[in-house]
Structure formats: structure tokens, C-alpha cells
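Quiz preparation item.
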């Protein structure tokens, strides 16, 4: 099956000037929840649904598998069809996005200790263990976040909004209003605000 057929444009084609909306961040930082928020608001989501919901993400991952090929030399023609739509791209792959497009990046930030605890829980459910210490992984993540922030700040074709997951889960209205204003689109703000589920905020520090 041609994966591009999964998200053909609707009847009204998006303008070539519309940016691709990217949801990014570290693994387990709230990117799937932000995808669901934008979906509820009325944006078109780019996903192939190959990774289905499970105990770690009961409401779905919203992933698009071909995105994982960024950086391996493959053509990223799918980006042409994603203008005006939303794609989840892990922070480690952002620098490999084609530079001939404009992007609006919603970057999720979360307490690193919570991220590590969430990852450990996910590995435990799969019967797996990490060979690296929490301290080493935390240092790697923090260094990566510093580098990617500097890189993003120097990209003329990228606008970035940083969203704090911890604040969002405590009081969603303010951060989601910020997302709404950043995108500048006619979205359903009320439905967006209703998405965060505190019952799924299971690793708190």
C-alpha cells in the first residue's frame, strides 16, 4: 500500500504556503496527548495507525512510521502532502526535516525524572530492561535538549512553541490557549481543553 494515500488532501487543497505542523519532544514527554488535542481541535492528523493503543498509551500513539526514515538518506516526499496537517516527529529527528518547507513545531517539555520513570514502566511491561543508568540517560537527554533548542532557534523556516507537560496537566486552559494562539487557526478550543486526562498522569515528580 502506498502510505501517501493515507492522507490525501481533502476537497480543498491546502496552500503551498501553509506550514507543516510538527509535534515533537523526547519519548514519553506528552507528544501523543498533544496530537490528540490537535485532533480534537479539528486539525488533520498524519498517522498510519500501525502502532495501536496499549496500556502505556491508552488513547493512541498517533505515529507515522515513515517518519522514522528521516536521516537515513531516504526521500521525504511525504512532507509535501503534510502541509497544513499535523505530524509527530521525535526530537532526535527534527534536524532531518527537509529545509524547503516551513514548519510550526509544538515542542513538549516534561520533567526528565518523570520521562525516565515512564520509560522504565513501559520497558517493564514488555519484559525489557535498560542497560544505562538513569543518571547517564538523564544527562544525555538534557544535553540533547540544549542542542536541539539552539538548532531550532537558528532555523528561519521553523517557528517553535514550547509547551510544559507538567503545567498542562495541572491546568490545561492556559497552555492550550497558547497552542491555539500559536497556530492561528479556527480550532475548537473547548474540545482541545477537554482532552488532558489526569488519570493518565501516572508518573509524577
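Solution:
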Amino acid at each position: 500500500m502506498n502510505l501517501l494515500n493515507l492522507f490525501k488532501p481533502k476537497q480543498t487543497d491546502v496552500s503551498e504556503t501553509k506550514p507543516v505542523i510538527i509535534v515533537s519532544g523526547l519519548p514519553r514527554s506528552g507528544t501523543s496527548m498533544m496530537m490528540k488535542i490537535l485532533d480534537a481541535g479539528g486539525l488533520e492528523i498524519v498517522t498510519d495507525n500501525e502502532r495501536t493503543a496499549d496500556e502505556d498509551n491508552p488513547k493512541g500513539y498517533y505515529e507515522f512510521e515513515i517518519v522514522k526514515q528521516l536521516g537515513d538518506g531516504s526521500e521525504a516526499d511525504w512532507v509535501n502532502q503534510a502541509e497544513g496537517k499535523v505530524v509527530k516527529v521525535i526530537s532526535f529527528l527534527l534536524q532531518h526535516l527537509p529545509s524547503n518547507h516551513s514548519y510550526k513545531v509544538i515542542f513538549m517539555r516534561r520533567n526528565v525524572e518523570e520521562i525516565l520513570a515512564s520509560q522504565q514502566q513501559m520497558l517493564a511491561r514488555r519484559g525489557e530492561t535498560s542497560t544505562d543508568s538513569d543518571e547517564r540517560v538523564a544527562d544525555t537527554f538534557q544535553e540533547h535538549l540544549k542542542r536541539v533548542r539552539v538548532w531550532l532557534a537558528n532555523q528561519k523556516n521553523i517557528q517553535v512553541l514550547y509547551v510544559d507537560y507538567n503545567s498542562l496537566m495541572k491546568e490545561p486552559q492556559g497552555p492550550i490557549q497558547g497552542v491555539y494562539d500559536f497556530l492561528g487557526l479556527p480550532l475548537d478550543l473547548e474540545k482541545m481543553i477537554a482532552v488532558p486526562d489526569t488519570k493518565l498522569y501516572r508518573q509524577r515528580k
